[in-house]
Amino acid sequence: MGLIYPTEPTPMLQIYDFGMRLGRRALVAIAKASRADSPSKFIRFAKGQLKSKSSVEDVEGSLDRNRPTVWIHAASLGEFGIARPIIRQLRKSCDCNIVVTFFSPSGYEALTTRGHEDIDKVLYLPFDTSENAKQFLDAIRPDCAVFMVSEYWHTFLHELHSRGIPAYLVSAVIRENGPFFKWYGKLYRKSISYFKEIFVLNDESQQRLSSIGIDNVTVNGDPLFDNVTIVASTPWEDKIIEKFSKGHKVFIAGSIHNDEDLKMIAALANKHRDTRFIIVPHETRTSTLSQISDAIRGKLKFYSQCTDKTSFSNTQVLVIDFVGALAYIYRYGTWAYVGGGFTKLLHSVIEPAVYGLPVAFGPNITRKVVTSQMIKLGIGAVTPNFDALDKWFCDLKDNPRKLREIAGKAAIYVAKNAGATQRVVNKISEEICAKN
Known about the structure:
By secondary structure, the chain is of the alpha/beta class. The protein is built from 18 helices and 14 strands. The relative contact order is 0.11.
């Protein structure tokens, strides 16, 4: 069992709550003042917080109270990839309401735009204040809560614990330099102790949690493997991308996150004008799309400007200027580069691997366990600069034997890591069945 703490908020939690209340006031002020026609991600986040409270209140009477409710929280669209197979399997296992919350606009906007048949409600997570946490739980009335990766919202976790609502943490990685081991880590240690079960990705994480008295830990695989397997096996085609790719090997640059990613990919495309590229930026703001257009020397088209009758005979680069389909688009590729590796936010490297693509990425890889595994197997490669990326690509460009070898290794790797979802769902189902 984990450490047991009193349910009264400590002075440290009260200080945290005060800081969050100030932060929310600032965000609301920014949201009300913004008049931008094409708002930034931060402004969209601020506007989301502005309406989060009323959105939660609207949910209160709309859920079927004859069914148990599972609240699932993911920071953004990337983390939702972990939640997606859990939600799908939960729907098969039991009759329950599923409420999903996001902190980032990427997930909220993607799901509210295209919908999701297995989810009853999609909401922004209100700012982590004591008032918001109480109002949210009063309205949703979850029978359990499931958090993805590293979502340690201290006030929400305290309130869940106070009400006796079990919470689970999925796909966690506990690092030796994590906040739990810092001088200010008492609040984090207390919050993580509130989880009924913590599913971690490696033995090291289990050992580190054990060192601070947290023993309700299970070493489990990553549900992302189950998610990418589902995506890859789902029939999906796009006539425009199909036409652009037909008869060509295509390099797919997915989730291009910042200037460093763009510089490297643009330089690679400009050097290898005989290769077709699909570029999928993480953000589709006008300024980002203009940067891509300015950086590419070959002929470029934006997806939104194309139809299935568009000619791509002289087009080298297709830019996908909408979000939400990257995991499916990788099926058209031969090689892949995944963005975010020059920040702390490297995006999913498993999504292209499930299709057997060799994958390159930037140097900041410590936040993901799978990157070191893929490097060891020869499926993935760190490319810290253009020269490294170019060498990696040149070694694979006209090497069908090597590409087949990587595809085979990737298939085995994904298959060996599948199955983590069911273990998580079994725990949640046991909890729901025990209460109903």
